[in-house]
Amino acid sequence: MSVECWLTIHRCRIHSRHSKCAGRLGRRVCCEQASTASAFDSGEHQPLEDGPDDVFVKDNAGMLDIAVHPDFATNAWIYYCFVAGSSDLNTMVIERARLAGVRLVERERIFAALPWFHNSIVYGCRIVFRDSHLFVSTGDRWDLRHLAQSPGSHPGKIMRLREDGTAPDDNPYAQLPGAAAEVWAIGTQNPQGLAVHPVSGDLWEHEHGPLGGDEINIIRAGRNYGWPVVTFGKEYSGATIGEGLTFKEGMEQPVRSYVPSIAPSDMLFYTGSAFPGWRGNLFLGALAKTHLARLVIEGETVIAEEQLLAENGRRVRLVEQGPDGFIYIGVDDGRILRLVPTNPAH
Ligand SMILES: [Ca+2]
Fold it and tell me: Distance from the CA of 207 to the center of ligand 1, in angstroms?
């Protein structure tokens, strides 16, 4: 495997907390922390026009994710989430728009997480499509962690939305009085990876823990993923969290947990042909150790893990499979790197 610099996003901040790209049918779109989305083909970078003008940029806040609709070729929809508002009150919102050249048209805001809050950290926010629905992760905003166990609000959840942002009637809490009908699963901390398993169709997630306790989970309807009652992490002070439980009846155990943290940033199940030996592997970007983690999965178990690009020295913010089957990663200095096999018969 060798690494090429495929694109430099000049406006990407050196320490951009989140930048994310999505690819579909030769068209890739990218979001940067400080701006609206960008589109690029063949290494050309073009800022998109007519995006939202109320993106709040500070600490973790900014543009957080972008996703291309599975039927983009016929409907041109792209979806993206970002933090709207100000340092007084802000929250994660989702918009969709049709991509017309480099313009966003028919732009509409389809969801805003409640409650609005005044800090600028831990928004989660990844978007994936499955079965004509949108799955979205939300962080616990750190100071609102007590809400992660309640289906009555959005922090610390996985949500399932219709493509227009409304809540499906068959969501697990849709009929529960006082619950937020969008909620699909509860008890997550800061999920920055969501991916659909290419064979089982299961929704896999990863989330940051606090000090230690990053997790990989398989997300199922109505399940409770434990945070902040159950965790393998500690407070940044070293203090235990809650009662210091690592198991509780009725709460899901992670597929894998990391102590110390790797600070996972993005998630990809590789299905391409460029690296046949890696097909079905799960890739995680890592911020803490600046590597790309390659996990070999058997059923619902991680049976091996390798650290790629450990010498990279840059935080890996995004991992994406291109239409060409190569793996693209985004790193903190604004470059998008392309991994190509050194030996095509890899
Ligand atoms: Ca958990």
Answer: 8
